[in-house]
Amino acid sequence: MTEKLFPDKGRSWEHIEKHILDTKKENYDWRSGRVPNGSFYVSEDLLDIVKKAYLMYFSENALLKGAFPGLDRLEKEIVQMTSEILQGGEEAVGTMTSGGTESIFLAMKSARDYARANNSDLKKPNIVIPYTAHPAYSKSAHYLDVDVIQVPVRDDFRADVEAMAAAVNQNTIMMVGSAPEFSLGMMDPIEELGELALQKNLWLHVDACIGGFLAPFVRKLGYRVPAFEFSVPGVTSISADLHKMGYTAKPASTILYRSAEYQEFQYFSFSKWPRGAYKVATFTGSRPSGAVAAAWATLTYLGQDGYLKAAERTMDVRQALFDGITAIPAFKIIGDPELCIFTFSSDVIDINSVANQLRQRGWYVGFNPEPPAIHWFLTPMYEVMVKDYIKDLKDSVEEVKAGKADAKKFDVRYG
Ligand SMILES: Cc1ncc(COP(=O)(O)O)c(C=O)c1O
Questions:
Q1: Helices (H) and strands (E) in the chain, counts
Q2: Residue 292 C-alpha to ligand 1 middle, in angstroms?
Q3: What is the DSSP letter of 380?
Q4: What is the per-residue pLDDT across 196-236, written as a single tens digit (0 to 9) for each?
Q5: Most buried residue among 5, 52, 197, 258 by CB atoms closer than 10 A?
Q6: Pocket-testing residue among 182, 186, 190, 228, ligand 1, by greatest number of atoms within 8 A of Cβ
């Protein structure tokens, strides 16, 4: 029988602290840069501020807007700042959510219910997405009873707008483009998708979960970044994650709509129970208000110049990695990604074996099976790992060439 864990009597803080610290020893150390995504850290001073702000609102509940109107104001200000970044103008509205998945879920629910209200011929709704779109669409479709039509991408790994146009039918409620997508880091041609959306009178959702708080600043630095914001006619909604390149505490994302007529369908209202009217904008019920305060603090502490500086550091890390990786003759960068995600592979050496060697050397290793490639999702903090990584990569290549490496298929772990 397994040992009973729930103690008869409460334990001391010393006991608790030790146990938690022990669990931390089992983890990869994110500060070392060896976890290739999920480490959204800019600086020690920002981390301190995020923690302080989070604790100031530790006990309130973001569900209870009536009880905590001050908290609601912070949330509205976060949405407004996000809208300013994404060129939402006077009309855009939105909500804070628990993450990219919830933002996408809510956009899909809104699109489905908007279509139900406006299209009396609608039968089983579907969405048309590029093959590279995040699994959150299929997950949400599963819950919302919506079909998903996945469309192969072009040779440059970006959404194939013509093929998407051909896939749309009378039951399509939404098209999707990513800015950028997670697997290879490519921005889809949102302007072309916007034109198609207007032509077909269709809802276009832009998944800027990664790029929302990064791409506008990378563009300002002078890099080529195609428009994906509300400045593109035809864009109906945008998801942008505060807890990724917004650099704040989890759980925090935003879903924004071009205007209130679309957001109206996001709400869930119910009153057939003893406690009366229950109307919420999010899928979650009770919500951590610490994440709201932390997001407000992050946006305000960094400001435009802070996000610009963070974007510059991220692009500099990327360049340093590109230089180090392509200096090893075996490797090539896949495609032409614009932002913080990229992959690299090889025509002359088995990339699975290289990934296996890197894992043995203590790297968590992101891996993309289609096409087989090693994956990086960068933030400013990855400055710390570039030298060690390039050295380990070179050594791994030598080991593979010498036949010392494990040649079995890399066992991909997502999560
Ligand atoms: C492009 C994209 N969309 C959506 C998501 C889902 O975000 P979350 O994990 O915050 O739910 C991710 C996560 O990596 C993503 O990369």
A1: 12, 13
A2: 19
A3: G
A4: 999 999 999 999 999 999 999 999 999 999 999 999 999 99
A5: 197
A6: 182
